[in-house]
Amino acid sequence: MTRTALAALALICASATAFAQADMANDIRSISIPNEVKTRLGPLQFNNGRPSPNAAEQLLAELDYVRAVDVFLNAMPGAAMVAMRRGQRSMGAADNTFVVFEQFLDSKTIFPTGSTETIYASSFLDLSKGPLVLDYPPRALGVLDDMWSRHISDFGVTGPDKGKGGKFLIVPPGYKGKIPSGYHVARSRTNGVWAVVQGIAAGGDQPPPVMQILERLKVYPLDVADNPPAVDVINASGNAANLLPANGASFYDDIAALVQQEPADTLDPELLGQLAAIGIAKDRPFSPDERMKRILADAAAVGSATARSLFFRPRDPAAYLYPDSAWMTPLIGGPLFLRGGVRLFDARAAFHYGHAVVAPSLFAPTAGSGMQFAVVAVDAGGEWLDGGKLYRLQLPPNVPAKESWSVTLYDPQTRSLLQTEALQPTLSSQNEKLKPTADGSYELWFGPKAPTGKEDSFMRTAPGKGWFAILRLYGPTKPWFDKSWRPGEVEAVK
User: Fold this and answer.
1) pLDDT tens-digit profile of 50-99?
2) Which residues on neighbouring strands pair with residue 36, listed in sequence order?
3) Cβ neighbourhood burial of 362 (10 Å; 0-12, 13-18, 19+)
4) Which of 8, 344, 388, 423 has a Cα-to-Cα distance from 468 of 20 to 30 A?
5) Is the pLDDT of residue 392 over 50?
6) Cα–Cα distance, 123 to 100 (Å, whole number)
């Protein structure tokens, strides 16, 4: 090889080495951290990649805070059940006792977006001592959810008995005993189970009153099936109980208590890990120190505010029913809040912040049966609905509801029925005084004072208090699902 060739080769090798060294230097810089990092927490100091004591303290405190906010949003389904159970106990209803609102739900009870047209009865069943039998008559409509608001089974019309009545054997987690014949079986992942029941129409008949169903409904341990006792029932009408979860740091106390009450494997490892990271774990006392108490209080405030934002201003386009419309739906992703195998955390948090029962029939109903609903919180101009202003809502002709429809008002602070002199703030097609206009549409009015001549289609609001509304369709028909019919927007009247 000539000297020229050797020189060229040496130059090439040197260049390659230089490039390799430069690439390595760039790689090192890309995975390194400067001695001062500017963040929203302020400047953080490092020493050759190692955090200063102050930086480490700040960052780990922020990690505690982030995880606590995540727990607030992700554990909300459980907190909702704890609050519901505590509220029913405050009414005098022990476990396995049914609470019923015989005169319909009214605004004295703090209950998330409850309906005023349907009489419900509910009970928290305790499986800790073994399976329970739920024995119910024909034409019932019921749902079983566990203590993390996960659907277990329907019973009655939408259940395996198809409305003929029957017996469910509700089995606790890990049960290995013999399952007798003659029962529908529901396996719960928690020892606590929420049972909700209502009457439903059959063949065009009026639905049986819930009390008639409860007269024949029984809940009892499997070992007394030969001589079952009558079910205890408490009438909660007019009760001022609160059935909503806490907004503050006591939220975490409720979740900690629920974790202790239920089996260790009730939840998936990811949520268990989030809970454990802030000190909530099975068979371990939840005793945050003063530093952590301050973090939890802040996280609860932000978590609650975030849940409100997800409920009133959802960012998923699927939450909005129509283009250029304020009408929303919380029924996104089915009862498991999944889309393409991906969990919709925002949709789940929003639903459980404002609503209660999880049932597949609600998320995937059949035309002509069940119930659908839509939520509106702003007027046609995008402004929050104000109790001191007058509004008009037009429902076009042929409202797509085989049974009935209603518009009910709620307080955005409590997500419960708006408190005015009207204990049941609802305008409904079942009200004989509510008449359609000449073209078959309905004009509904909301405000502090009824316009002259509109008293029968008016619902009073409270000055100084906001409100939102829910349109419910009982027996929704095809025009609702294909969106060939849509409600008007809520219009402010000058």
Assistant:
1) 999 999 999 999 999 999 999 999 999 999 999 999 999 998 889 999 98
2) 45
3) buried
4) 344
5) yes
6) 9
